[in-house]
Amino acid sequence: MVEAPNPFSPSFGTSPPLLVGRDEQLTVFIEALEEGVGAPGRATLYTGQRGSGKTVLLNALEDIARRQGWHVLSVTARPGVAHQLARTLIPQEMRDHHPEQARTSHVTGFQGTAAGFGGGISRTGEDRFPVEPSLRHALTALAAAAAQREAGVLISLDEISSNAAGDLQELCQDVQHVGFREGLPVMFTAAGLEPSVQQLLADVPGVTFLRRAERAHLGPVGDADVTRALAEPIAHFDKSIEPEALDRMVTGTQGYPFMIQLVGREVWRAARGQETITARHADLGVDRANRRIGQLVHQPALMELSPTDKSFLAQMALDDGPSSIAVIAQRMGVNSNYASQYRLRLIQAEIIHEAGRGQVDFSLPQMREYLREHATHDALRPPGGSSPSSSHLTEPQDRTSRPSRQERRRPPGSTSSGPAGPRR
Questions:
Q1: Spatial distance between the Cα atoms of 362 and 330, rounded to a whole number of angstroms
Q2: How large is the average pLDDT for residues 379-393?
Q3: pLDDT score of 104
Q4: For all residues of the chain together, what is the average pLDDT?
Q5: Which of 355, 255, 318, 341 is nearest to 49 (CA)?
Q6: 388 with 382: CB under 8 angstroms?
Q7: pTM flag (> 0.70)
Q8: Rounded distance, CA 11 to CA 144, Å?
Q9: How far apart are CA 264 and CA 266, in angstroms?
C-alpha cells in the first residue's frame, strides 16, 4: 500500500487542510467586502495567543479577496514596511494589473530650425513641481484603478507591534484618508499577539485608526469543529479512525488551533502503514505532540516574560489544578496585592485565565507539565527536597511592596527590550 502524504501541517502561518472555528470572522469579512465603504469590518484587528491561528485567518481572508478580484498587499509589520508598500508592492501591482496607468509620457523637448525644418534649436521642458512618491499617493492610484474594475485593495498586516511604530503611524493615517475619507475601496486587516497590540495602542500616538477598528479575538475551537478538522482530512486520504481514537485526539488538542495540526500530524505518523487509526495510535501521537509543543510554543512565550512573571508561573506549576492567588503569594513571599499585579499581567498575556474566585489556571495546553520539567531547580524546590509536585515552597525574603515602576509600565508578556519571538 502506498502511504498517503500526511495531511496535517503544524507550521506557524501555514494554512491547515480545513479551517474551522472561524466562520463568524469569515462571514463579517465577506459582508464588508460586498457592502462597500462604510460597512463594519472594513478595518479589523485580530488578536490571540501564539498558535491561535491569526496568520492562518489572514491567509483565508486574503484568498477570499483575491477571488473577488481585489489587490492583496500582504506584509509583516516591521520597520520599513511603509516604504516597502509605497516603493515596491503597490508599483508592482500597478505594473502587473494596470499598465496603462503605471506609465506616463510627456514631451521633454523640441528640435527644429527658425524656418521650420531641419536641425536647429532644442528646447527641453522641466517639471518645476515634481511629485514625490508617497504611500498615500501610491495607494490612492491603485485603489482608484481598482475601483474602475469594481474591485479594491486589501492591506493585510501580520505581527503588528510597536517595533514598527513609525511605519504604522503613516500606514494607519494613509489608509484612513484614502479608504474612509476619500471613500475609495480599501480594506485593512491586521493581527498580533494581545500584549503587543495593547502596548501599541497604549503607547504609540497617531494610530487612532487602529483603536477605532473592529476587534476580533481568536480563542479556542469547540469540540465539534475540532472533530471535523481531524476527521475530514483523515477520511480524504482513505484512512479510517476508531471513534475512541478520534475522541482522544480531540481531547488532546484542548481546542488549541496549533495543537489540532500537531496532534493530527503525530497521530498520522504513529499509524504509518496502517489503514485504521486506533486508540493506541492516538495515545502515542498525543504524547508526542505534548512533548513538541513545549519547544514550539511554550519556550518562545516564556522568553517574553519578566523573571517575576516566570516565578509566578513556577508556583502555579506545583498545583495539579487551578491555583489560589493567596497560596501563590505565600509561596512567593509577597502580599496578595503584589501577586495580583502579576496575575493581571499574565491574564492579559493569555498565559493564564481566571478559574473561579481567587483562582487561576494555565491557558496554554501542557504549560504546567512543561514548567515542571524545565523550570529552574531552585524555583520549584519544595521544603526538604521532595518532589516538585509538593504544594508548598520555602518562603523567600518577604516582599510587600508593589511591582517596580519599570515593571508596572512594562506591558504583559514583554521584556524591557520589547516584544520578541518567532512568528506564530
A1: 19
A2: 40
A3: 52
A4: 84
A5: 255
A6: yes
A7: yes
A8: 37
A9: 6
pLDDT in tens, 143-197: 999 999 999 999 999 999 999 999 999 999 999 999 999 999 999 999 999 888 9
Domains of the chain: 23-99+133-217 (3.40.50.300), 223-301 (1.10.8), 305-409 (1.10.10)
Distance CA 35, CA 114 (A): 62
Q: What is the pLDDT of residues 204-214, one digit of tens each?
A: 888 889 999 99
pLDDT for 376 equals 53
Radius of gyration of the chain (CA): 27
Q: What order of strands is seen across the sheet that includes strand 214-217?
A: 71-76, 153-158, 186-192, 43-47, 214-217
Q: Are 133 and 168 in contact (CB under 8 A)?
A: no
For cell 495593547, name the residue: 198
Please write the tens of the pLDDT for every residue from 108-119: 444 544 455 555
Contact indicator for 185, 147 with CB cutoff of 8 Å: yes
